[in-house]
Amino acid sequence: MTAPGLGSHVGPSLGFNRQIAQGLFMAPHVVAEAMKGAVFAAKLLEMAGCRCEPASDDLRGDIVQSVAFPDEQQMVNFCRKVQSCSPVDSFVSPEPWDMPGYDAQVVMAAGAFVQGASIELSADGPIKPPYLVYMQGGLVFEQVKLAVMMAVSEMMEKN
Q: Domains of the chain, with CATH numbers?
């Protein structure tokens, strides 16, 4: 990144040394929170009758969790719960819409601090069988836990 004695005069810092160091320090914890959330989500959703990939007891290589819902409405409701538990735009209700590049409507939930951030909790997927939602991220485990518990609770109430 730089060499001793040269400080911020050379290297990729561009005046962001503190943020770079903070990111390197916090990254393992944030990724662990997202991984715990994915495992928790997979287990609870499996218990609710959904097919999850990877399964809750599988080895994982990333933070993405796919969940197959039995129908379109449960898929959309899940995304709405994720959005409702978001720190930004929690009042928004995601609706399926025509998105360029997809052959089906897509529903997207992501009330993130940074638009498009893959480490912040999001859930999205195309509205077509097998009704797969791709959930990823979660800066804190508790947010993922809350969103998944609320979604499964609603699923159980409707069944």
A: 15-158 (3.90.1150.60)
